[in-house]
Amino acid sequence: MIFIGISDGAGGNLMYGYDPRLFSESLMRNCSDLAHTEKYSITEPKRLLCHAFDCVQNENCFGMFIFFSHLVLVLKFKKI
Question: What is the residue-wise DSSP string for the chain?
């Protein structure tokens, strides 16, 4: 099973003094860390993303109004 994640910070965050790249990098790093725990099934990409977002919020280093785009894709391979 492979989780693939993509996140893009919105440049508009610069108006509020936040580097949009930092939030996206933190979100994807947390997704990766959590996915490697193998506690998430392929049917739960939303749960994985929500827990990663909670981790970012707990880091408390980002503003309240962060805008971003994200995608989590789960691939499961069958042996043939």
Answer: -EEEEEEEE-GGGGGGT--HHHHHHHHHHHHHHHHTTT---TT-HHHHHHHHHHHHHHHT-S-S---EEEEEEEE-----
Asked whether the beta carbons of 12 and 65 are under 8 A apart, the reply is no
Q: How far apart are CA 35 and CA 41, in angstroms?
A: 9
Which DSSP string do the residues of 52-69 spell out, in sequence order?
A: HHHHHHHHT-S-S---EE
Per residue in 35-54, pLDDT (tens digit) is 888 888 777 888 888 898 88
Alpha-carbon span 75 to 25, nearest angstrom: 21
Q: Which pTM does this prediction carry?
A: 0.69
